[in-house]
Specification:
293 residues, alpha/beta, 6-stranded mixed beta sheet, two-stranded antiparallel sheet, 11 helices, 43% helix, elongated
């Protein structure tokens, strides 16, 4: 069996950049920590650290050991937090990553089935796709909602499932969207001010291709990374905007917005990505089951 105390000392030495700083942090003698790390190297059969100036540097074997140690001790902290919460019987925690570019209104609709969970603590992180996958692999997140599936990478041990393949609808403020605009959709987009997601969104790329296919040259007056913020500006009269039909269930609650039209051949996809640990999270299972139904 691997001695995790020895691994912990190695991890601290690496993070602190040397034995002296590690000894100070751990309030132990340098010689004791050094001896424990040597025991770990002996058990693994490879040198993990080598001298580098006044500190130490990792060998290639050390880098591999450190990567796993980082995972192990971060998971250890998560275990402490979860055990504390479980013992209190008060908190149901769900940490979700929302990838840049997906409709946040659609994400809210997907999460809605669990929002009434007693003592729910919902933690949402918005970020780049690759960064969120790293956080998921380290078990900092239970679920990632993204506009694309997880890449094929056996080291990450992630699974993904497409939850949404929803047609895109166009909405705008009542003052802009007249009956003639509805009747002449989508050609009416050429004469209306248009708000769009920014280029980092998979939906934006699909829309740009659709504009070309329809021969449309819309007058773009605003671009937004956040779909909810986009909807707010539209509701205040700035222009018309696209959103998946799933997300539009929230938009319809926003006063003053009117349906302009729907393009069935333009769809937004949202994928649920989770680690093996996340696959057994009851709230993750509830989100996925609700989307399937």
């Amino acid at each position: 069996m691997l001695n995790y105390r020895h691994l912990y000392y190695f991890w601290v030495v690496t993070k602190e950049g040397g034995f002296a700083r590690a000894a100070e942090r751990l309030d132990m003698a340098v010689q004791t920590i050094s001896a424990q790390v040597r025991e770990l190297e002996k058990a693994l059969g490879h040198q993990l650290l080598k001298p580098a100036g006044r500190g130490v540097a990792m060998t290639e074997a050390g880098k591999a050991a450190f990567a796993r140690a980082e995972e192990i001790f971060q998971i250890g902290q998560v275990i402490l937090d979860e055990v504390r919460e479980a013992a209190s019987g008060k908190v149901a925690r769900l940490a979700v990553g929302l990838s840049d570019g997906i409709s946040k209104l659609a994400a809210h609709a997907l999460l809605e089935p669990v929002l009434a969970t007693p003592s729910l603590r919902l933690v949402c992180h918005d970020g780049e796709f690759e960064q969120l996958l790293s956080e998921l692999a380290l078990h900092h997140l239970d679920l990632v909602l993204a506009g694309q599936p997880a890449p094929r990478n056996p080291n990450l041990r992630l699974t993904s499932e497409r939850l949404v393949d929803s047609p895109v609808q166009w909405y705008g403020p009542a003052a802009l969207v007249r009956k003639a605009d509805v009747d002449q959709f989508p050609q009416s987009l050429d004469r209306l001010p248009v708000l769009l997601p920014t280029g980092h969104s998979a939906l934006r790329l699909t829309l740009d291709r659709w504009f070309d296919a329809q021969g449309l040259r819309p007058r773009i007056v605003g671009e937004f990374e956040d779909s909810a913020l986009l909807a707010v500006f539209a509701a205040r009269g700035m222009g018309v905007f696209p959103i998946s039909r799933l997300g539009a269930s929230d938009v319809s609650l926003m006063r003053g917005l009117r349906l302009l039209g729907q393009c069935d051949d333009v769809k937004e996809e949202i994928h649920a990505i989770c680690s093996r640990r996340g696959q057994h999270h009851p709230l993750v299972l509830q989100v996925i089951a609700a989307a399937r139904s």
